[in-house]
Amino acid sequence: MTADGEEGSEKSKFRWLDAARYAVAAAVTVLIMAVIVNAVKVVLRPDSLQLSVDKGSISTTTTQSPSPQLEQALVMELKLRAQNPSGRVRMYYVGVIGYLFDNTTSASVSSDPMYDCIAYLQLKDMAVVQQEAVDNSLRLTVKRKQMDPSYFDKLYNGSRISDMTLRLDGDLITEVTSELNKTRRTTYYCEELLVDGKGDDEAFKYRQDAICKQRRALN
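RESULT FIELD:
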């Protein structure tokens, strides 16, 4: 073999070695990027906010009207607990409107919940730090014209209504850092609720909390 042939053979070996090194470097780079992307997903998609209705119940009482000419009204009360299971991020559930449905109308398929519900509630914004829980107590006065009249009359006269669903629509904000927040329109369904027209604590005494199911709107 000539010197030129040996030199060409050596160059060929170096080219193959360089190619192998580049291939290994590329594979390592892809692996590192996959790890980084996965880590970002973990941070941006932590365990989600968990909601429940205390005792799975909503109590109602009638207002005391000083004059028979004043419009009848109900005072509705419920306690909504929000728990943040994440150890990394704060969570906020804001701009929340609650819609109360009976068992004849599906809360999940309604495209116009304001029209289809029997009553609607404006809830306070919730801010929950890492691995903590907060209670959002709601006390709302509802007039007859703001509720389905047949259900208003039942509750006003002291009847109980079971198997109700509270649909909650709001923005769920995950505070990843002070500069980066992730917001998703999120709906919860709190099912099999008891609405009691007497406001009787005994009716709720042995009831379990109603765990709300979550559905996220697609972005």
